[in-house]
Specification:
Elements lengths: L3 E4 L2 E4 L4 E7 L9 E6 L6 E6 L6 E3 L7 E6 L4 E6 L8 E8 L11 E4 L3 E6 L1
Parallel strand pairs: 2-11
Antiparallel strand pairs: 1-3, 3-8, 4-5, 4-9, 5-6, 7-8, 9-10, 9-11
Length: about 120
């Protein structure tokens, strides 16, 4: 069973930074596609960034490109999201997710495992 636990959320001012972490259960193999999603009140959940099992190939949503960076430390079984120059529209619940696939762009990719989420609030 793959378990994920996020941390690092909080309340900040616009322009500040936060780093989110997501730890996988020890028995889980982190050599898989993993991603960060977010959901604001009244809005659909959206993918923010994802990274392949190689810990190198990554994609970011256009809305966060140049400000957010996803990374993974397989030795620590941990996924990160460095968020810089935060904006009020970045506010929401951030979720870590893990796939059973190595490549995120595999057409059959599905995120089966989810964390409980960590709240990010950015005030202007």
């Amino acid at each position: 069973q793959v378990q994920l636990m996020e941390s690092g959320g909080g309340s900040v001012q616009a322009g500040e930074s936060l780093r989110l972490s997501c730890v996988l259960s020890e028995s889980a193999d982190s050599s898989r596609c993993m991603a960060w999603f977010r959901q604001a009140p009244g809005k659909e959940r959206e993918v923010v960034a994802q990274i392949d099992g190689d810990d190198f190939t990554r994609n970011h949503a256009d809305s966060v490109k140049g400000r957010f960076t996803v990374s993974k430390d397989s030795a620590k079984n941990t996924l990160y999201l460095q968020m810089n120059r935060l904006r009020p529209e970045d506010s929401g619940m951030y979720y870590c997710a893990a796939s059973t696939f190595y490549r995120c762009n595999d057409q059959d990719n599905v995120f089966l495992y989810w964390g409980q989420g960590t709240q990010v609030t950015v005030s202007s």
